[in-house]
Amino acid sequence: MEPLRLRVQLAKRGKARYVSHVEFSRTLVMAARRAGLPLQYAGKYRPRMRISLSPPLPIGVTSECELVDYFLEQYVSPAEAKVALEKSLPAGIDVVRCRLMGSSAKPVGKLIDTAAYRVELPPDAGLEGDWRKAVEVFLGMEVVSMERVQPRRTRVVDLRPGVHRLEVELGGRGEGVGFLMVLDDGTRGTVKPLEVLKVLAGLAGVPEDSFQKARVHREGLFVRRGERLVSPLELGKGKPAV
Amino acid sequence: MSGRSSGDLWERIEPLLLRVERPSRYLGCEWNAPGIAQGCTSVVLAYPDVYEIGISNLGLAILQEVVNDIEGASCERVYSPWIDMEREMRAEGIPLFSLETHRAVSTYDIFGISIPHELTYTNIINLLDLAGIPVHASDREEGPLVIGGGCGTANPEPLASFFDLFVLGEGEESLGSLVELVSRGKSQGWSRQKLLCEAGRLPGVYRPSDYEVDYSDDGLIEGIRPIDGAPERVRKREVDLEDWPYPRHPIVPFCEAVHDRINVEIFRGCTRGCRFCQAGMIYRPVRERSVDSVVAMVESLAGRTGHEEVALSSLSSTDYTMIEDVTKKVSAICGQRRMILSLPSLRMDGFSVEIASGLELGGRGSFTFAPEAGTERLRRVINKPISEKDIIDAVLCATRTGRRRIKLYFMIGLPTETDEDVEEIGRLVFRVRDAVRSDGMAPPTFNVSVSTFVPKPHTPFQWIRQETLESIERRQGILQANLRARGINLSWHDSRASTVESLLARGDRRLAAVVENAWSSGSRFDSWSEHFDYACWEKACEDAGTDPVFYLYRERERDEVFPWEHLDFGLDRDFLFKEYQDALEGKTSPDCRGGQCLECGVCDEQGSGLALEGIWSS
Asked: What ipTM does this complex have?
């Protein structure tokens, strides 16, 4: 029998936002073991828990929508699982909600393709008018080339097709300018909020160090269905989980 | 999250985190990290190496909990900031900070530093300097008491001028009484001087400035004089493991650490009497934890940590009297909780290997054995008399149960060693491989790791000279020529690093200048090959006017006064010397649990004797 999946939405805040993706994954595995969830293991000699994680969150970014699918051997009530997990997670990582998914549900790692971010700049980072103009120019461009430096190779990528919404927002931290960004993240490629910000800063004529202190928050992870953004916790509703 | 209390440096630290490798090293909010009550006697314990190594240290984990369990005391952690973080901290003027509350280490009452081995000495000075604490104890008029502990206290003399106090031996009780003394001193308004005087009188606590060392013209030590009524010798302390079921809430790091597992000590001390082994000498006598306590600890730690592996640790785990009983019971827990049980420090005898092979390891992974030397003759010299048959049987047993990797540890530069002994290391490995073949199996991969022997204080080899760098390098050449084959990987430690280790291991107070010079010209993380700089140490010696030959390549006379003469780790000098003489003649000494007492001095003076679980319960 295909196992059940416990889909958990987590917030990562405070000091825990400096925990890397790999470390976050380890932490979720050990927390589930402490919580005593009836997990499914794979591998004969050194069994490993089966989990699936949403796309990596950049170090330093906070989130209220990280997702993990735990593969379970038997039924647990999501409410009980939530309580047990909450007691087993380190400070800064909290459970938002849990849902039991049917056995045919795609795991989050193969599902998510879109992320929404809120970005807040420090008050002294450029003028609102310049940023608005930069956003307008950005959205009007057909191609936004950007050098992506990776450990093994550096390549030029086009950010534009991965940027689905980009808006200036006010009223965040102090007088500062902020942005809402809806970006490719996951199965269809990834655009990072700081990459977009870097291009915008170039267009707005703002020096790089002034936006290094930007606060970035991942607000939602979604699956795109045409123009619609669907929450991975709403998928497959209507089909009984057990 | 920030600015909760005065002195919290988090807001200044935070901007640095995006510029350094692995920021989770500096967060302090790991699972099981203790909540810290402020306003009481505050302790911060340091490990002078990077986070991933320090977090795996069992001693500090135990002591942190011991102090936090004392009413009115709190204990936090700090590790050496990695090179990139140090650069950022110095550039921003941020002092060394505790992990749990991110306050400056200089504001604590006690700054305890673990001294794991000689190649951390520069990191220790660096910790003091980063904390903004004067590196010389004599320059301190305020600030925390700087206390050293751990196995490095077997001879802390090269560090004597940097520490206010040392805790000799096991720290569970000593650190507790120091904390209580500091609390009393604070409430009664004692001066720092008064506090240090009182502390120097506590059992197991060594205050180096209470002793003066006289040197003769030829550079030898004439005498070590206690002053102001200090005791003639300071005796190390040891505890009964049954009274100290720690750690109870070990911290689980975010990142992968060097030991990602539950560590339960099943006993301390060792009766085997390997003559090169300092730990086997200074942690005597053997004290076992009861099977019931071990099982209870494994059970509760499994739930509290979520780890996937349990190690029953000690200096030689299959020597535990009730080893079969305890592995059976712990294996049952492991089965329920999907954990793996491992026994580090396996002896090469059929019994040990059978037990280890039967564990839930299920056949994968590797086994590590330490024959130490290539010939039976040399193994008798070091009193680890394993026969070649033992070695072959152990590897056969491991291979039959499915191990595809065998790690073999050897040393070169052992006393009386000849080129022939070194050549035999290669031949031995080939003979073991052939034995596996003729047993009808494909031979496993052999990872042969060769380190350089360093004579250590409080061992029978404390009199002997270090093998020269040239001769070690020649012998490494012999190994390289002899061990070239597919499926055999040879690696060795940098012999120049071993030379520095050896210089400091039996060093005296005059070497403080060498360590300080090396540190001030940039030496850090000397045990990391990518950071070790031999030229820096050579220059440090030169600038201090120190002749390394005096410390390294000199055979000591029987009655030479050693720099650690006033530090009593329980071992009788005549016992050590007799062991040394027996070694030179290739005579072995039996394991004393067989009943034949070797009069090492530990039991007689203490009347404690061996505490063996099997004997209690039978």
From this structure: 0.92
